[in-house]
Specification:
- The structure holds two protein chains of two kinds.
- By secondary structure, chain A is an all-alpha fold.
- Chain A contains 13 helices and two strands.
- In chain A, strands 1-2 form a two-stranded antiparallel ribbon.
- Chain B is an all-alpha fold.
- Chain B is built from 16 helices and no strands.
- In chain B, helix 1 packs antiparallel against helix 2 and helix 9 packs antiparallel against helix 12.
- Chain B is globular, with a radius of gyration of 27 Å.
- The chains are: A mainly alpha, B mainly alpha.
- At the A-B interface, helix 1, helix 3, helix 4, helix 5 and helix 6 of A face helix 2, helix 3, helix 5, helix 6 and helix 7 of B.
């Protein structure tokens, strides 16, 4: 009897969490899976079209451009963020005057809204009266204004902004990993005559292995997913140069006046969302398998 | 410089030592330059926001410097009234506050039961929670969520958004779960022998002991809800009265009028950043620890 009461109590306590997760987390996904096979514009009746949405997707060059853009965006972001955050973490793991202040400053962007900062970055990066151009000209680094948000540089600019927001976060995760490495390893190796670089390559990196794997995985998923700041800063423009996968999905559901997509397409949007989730899932799993293989090799 | 070249050639031990110490010092200098430049780059946009919020609109538009020639504190009072930031701030506070309280209640109840009691379906429940963190089909889910809220008549206020944000409590659930693992079970056993019920144990023993963990969860949830952009944006498209700071600000960026009022925009950005920054600076130490700890969970 006591056991039944325990179980009953458990279910009672789990109920709010379970209900919310099912109704607002799982049901929407089921909704999308159903409408992938329908033509549905958000009003009127939905008509069953089978795999038509997926056929259309194969020929949708705008989407596949956004997939390539996403890879460029995520790749660029990782290339800047990971080494920089690791270096900062290693430095700030040592005894250094003012290291708590520096940690606080580096981590700060993490707590600030990326949507709000996109508004500020627009003021900094816009080509006509943007602060960056004006300072670069003032200090004679460039002679002509650079169109940071134009077709040529927009992707680079969004990558820089994304890296700005992410470095501190990964630095902190690396720091957490570094603090688990016992100090005497370093002491004995320096007695053996190892210098700082050797210690970094042959001690820190291998011992940080598991943490490194998790952080890289988080970084991959996050950079494939993020689109809020791009949405506010460029809306995917100019001419689709900064369009990323999830932003494209968003626009199918909530078309913007300035974009090329002007009508709601829930059926097609669901299919695109699903395929995007699968792409992200495959990349994550592939990375997971690869890092496990590397583990075995060592 | 001379020291270096000499010691490269030189073979006396004394010179070697001098070279090492010189290398060390220049290394330190380089290190500090690197650290300070990085810090400066990170902090620059925030400084621009703060200083720009005190400039006149003409001065910002003209540009040329980030330092205001005279301080226009009235930007804040005007933004507060004219750009409706009073309303936005209240909406943001309500959204974040309600989401935080709701998330903590829901997640702590679930975490307590999962950590302490054996029941059928536990693995399934934990599996579903974990899955919600990793599967993302993007903005697709917002549509069914919105339609549900219309049916429940919760789309005309912010409660709909609050419920949706609470439903994303998996992350906090796992943080609290790992926190609970660190609290000794003997305490609740003792209470049980004294005749305390499950609910009593949760309320009188677990919750008070979990206070640091709840603080961590509260900070995370509050920051997350305060910065949430997409859902408030979608839910307030037809009802600007419900806009939060993040949404109201991005609307200013496209400006209803021809001339963008950048000074209001920056004052608003400050209003949305500063409260979080102040809390962050106060709670810096525990903030660092909890973020670091969350990796293990």
């Amino acid at each position: 009897m006591n056991r039944t009461r325990q179980i009953g109590f458990s279910y009672l306590f789990l109920f709010p969490s379970f209900l919310l997760t099912m109704v607002l987390g799982v049901y929407p996904i089921a909704w999308a899976i159903r409408y992938m096979f329908y033509e549905y514009k958000g009003f009127g009746a939905a008509s069953f079209v089978g795999f038509d949405n997926f056929r259309r997707l194969l020929e949708d060059s705008e989407y596949w451009h956004s997939v390539i853009n996403t890879f460029v965006y995520a790749g660029g972001k990782l290339l800047i963020t990971l080494p920089l955050s690791l270096i900062l973490a290693v430095i700030l793991n040592q005894k250094l005057r003012g290291r708590n202040w520096l940690r606080a400053i580096y981590f700060m962007p993490t707590i600030i809204s990326s949507a709000v900062m996109a508004v500020v970055f627009f003021i900094i990066f816009n080509s006509y009266n943007g602060i960056l151009n004006q300072y670069l000209i003032k200090f004679h680094i460039i002679s002509e204004r650079i169109d940071w948000l134009g077709p040529k540089h927009a992707m680079l600019t969004t990558i820089i902004i994304a890296a700005w927001g992410a470095v501190g976060n990964y630095m902190l995760l690396f720091l957490a990993g570094l603090q688990n490495i016992p100090n005497d390893v370093y002491e004995s190796s320096s007695l053996d005559g190892a210098n700082k670089w050797q210690q970094f390559w042959y001690l820190t990196i291998p011992m940080l292995g598991p943490v490194l794997q998790i952080v890289i995985m988080l970084a991959i998923i996050n950079s494939l997913k993020g689109y809020e700041s791009i949405m506010v800063l460029t809306e995917g423009g100019p001419v689709g140069k900064t369009e990323v996968m999830y932003l494209y999905v968003y626009k199918l559901f909530f078309p913007t006046a300035s974009g090329s997509l002007t009508e709601q397409q829930f059926g097609y949007g669901s299919a695109v969302g699903f395929v995007t989730a699968v792409i992200v899932g495959i990349i994550t799993l592939a990375y997971h398998a690869m890092s496990r293989r590397l583990n075995k090799l060592q | 410089m001379e020291v270096v070249t000499e010691s490269f050639r030189g073979n006396s031990v004394k010179k070697q030592v001098r070279q090492v110490s010189f290398g060390k010092i220049s290394g330190k200098v380089l290190l500090w330059i690197f650290l300070l430049v990085t810090a400066l780059v990170i902090i620059f946009p925030v400084v621009v926001t703060f200083l720009g919020s005190l400039m006149s609109n003409i001065e910002i538009t003209k540009g040329g410097t980030i330092f205001p020639s005279s301080l226009h504190f009235e930007n804040y009072s005007e933004a507060w009234v004219q750009a409706n930031f009073a309303r936005f701030t209240w909406n943001s506070l309500f959204l974040s506050g309600a989401t935080t309280i709701g998330t903590l209640i829901v997640a702590s109840m679930a975490a307590y039961v999962v950590e302490r009691i054996a029941f059928p379906g536990k693995a399934l429940f934990v599996g579903i929670q974990a899955a919600t963190m990793f599967i993302s089909i993007g903005a697709v889910v917002i549509r069914p969520q919105f339609e549900l809220m219309v049916k429940l008549h919760l789309h005309t206020n912010l409660w709909g958004v609050v419920l949706i944000l609470i439903s994303g409590h998996a992350y906090i659930f796992f943080i609290l779960l790992s926190f609970l693992q660190g609290i000794s079970r003997e305490l609740d056993e003792a209470a049980r022998i004294d005749g305390c019920t499950n609910a009593g144990i949760f309320w009188r023993i677990i919750l008070p002991l979990m206070r640091p963990g709840l603080g961590v969860g509260a900070l995370f949830t509050f920051c997350g809800a305060w910065n949430e952009y997409l859902r408030p944006l979608v839910f307030t498209m037809t009802n600007p009265k419900l806009q939060t700071l993040t949404v109201g600000l991005s609307y200013l960026r496209y400006g209803a009028s021809a001339a963008v009022q950048t000074h209001y925009m920056l004052a608003g950005a400050c209003l949305s950043i500063l409260p979080l920054l102040v809390v962050y600076m106060i709670a810096n130490k525990s903030f660092m620890q909890m973020t670091a700890g969350s990796l293990k969970g």
